[in-house]
User: Fold this.
Amino acid sequence: MSLTSVASARRGWLRHAALLLSLLCAGPLRAEDKPAGGPEQAGAHFDRGVRFYEEGDYRSALLEFQRAYQLQHAYQLLYNLGQVSGELRDYAAAEGYFRRYLVDGKDAIPADRRAEVLVELSHLAARVGSLRITSNVSGAEIHIDDKLMPEALGKPVRVSAGQRQLVAEKSGYAPVRRAVDVLGGDEVSVSLVFGPPLAQPAAAAGKSSTNVVPWITGIGSAVLLISGGIMAYASYSDATEYADELDTFTTQAELDSLSSSTQNKALAADILLGAGIAAAAVTVVLLLTAESGEKPPKVSSRGVQFQF
Assistant:
């Protein structure tokens, strides 16, 4: 190993040690902002992030540095996050971390480190572009490369150069998908146009009419049952009168007339009561299926007949 490599490696370890020391000595966060954990846990995540970074496992290193930053908002970690994001070729994220590093660190950043970050930002400028997204529907959710961007509408969003996948979603509309090519340094305007609102599902559209049907069948069954009861009582009255006539002097024609009337009314009562019971059964089935959302089964049109 050359002396230059040794000196570079030594500077790297000194930088990591200094950052770890700053994490352990950082002042406490405000009570309302402080997440679970503390400087010691942040330091442990930082150590693991350094190991993963040296092993080339940049994805794991990014997660460890992000967790360390969540536990202790030390601005030094933003530099590491920018480095790892650059290795992962997420140039827009790297640019964002480096810019926040300069803003949060302010005068505490050494001059040589500030100059280094400014050079890195100039290199990233050729690898990052902007998207200005508009939509014909307000309140749409915008996803860029499967990542939700809450404030993407109407404002320029920094994205890495290349082909970006855009998805706009809004309840009641079909999602809008677009693939957009972005060049470094460019700003691309994209209009995501939703189609007409989706039609109301047939089940929902027919719900109101389905809820009315049980009332109709229920009222109909009540009318039929009452009518059948009245007709049955009339038939019973005729049968009683026929029996009384047998004990008195009467003609055969009068007896035949009473017998025919009794039979007709009994038959009508059978039909009305059978139809009423069938309608009541349909009402029960409709009420049950309306609650469960299932399609009601077919009910036989043949009523149940009762003999008196």
Q: What stands out?
A: Residues 128-192 form a domain with the Immunoglobulin-like fold (CATH 2.60.40.1120).
